[in-house]
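hey so u asked for the seq, here:
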Amino acid sequence: MKRLPSIISVVCFAAALTHSQTPAPAKPLSPLEQTLIANEKNLIEAKKKDDDEYFTRVLADGFALVEIDGKLHEQPEAVDELGDSDLIELTPYDMKVLPVSTDAAIVTYDAIFREAPKEDEGPQPRYQHFSSFWVKQGDQWKLKFQQATAAHYGDW
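ran it, structure tokens below
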């Protein structure tokens, strides 16, 4: 009987610890978040397929791209760089939408990135962070800017 209070304390502590480690339920996505996350996922699929027709439809005039090497590419060169037939994997995670105004937002996410090595170049950093700036033109969202940044520092 003397141990009963100790056992009860341990059980209560374990229950409290388990409850505090349970993640909070995810907040439902707003219509804006749903639309822009879907747009970004469509863009990723188009990148994998090097779908120039898709890029023509979705890219805003003056689209610019900053690649992982820090080089700025502007249209039409940026369109060529956006599609990549050497892409093996681009798996996004932790996508977030940051509204700027009613007609502009930034989609930001991390991704596992792999592409076939290019001649005389090492592999690209496997973990990258992407930021895409979307603008609403009429009733369509268009991609105005995208930047890739290395998200892992180390021996690459």
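The first helix runs from residue 4 to 21. The beta strands are 59-66, 72-74, 87-101, 104-115, 127-137, 140-150.
lmk if thats what u needed
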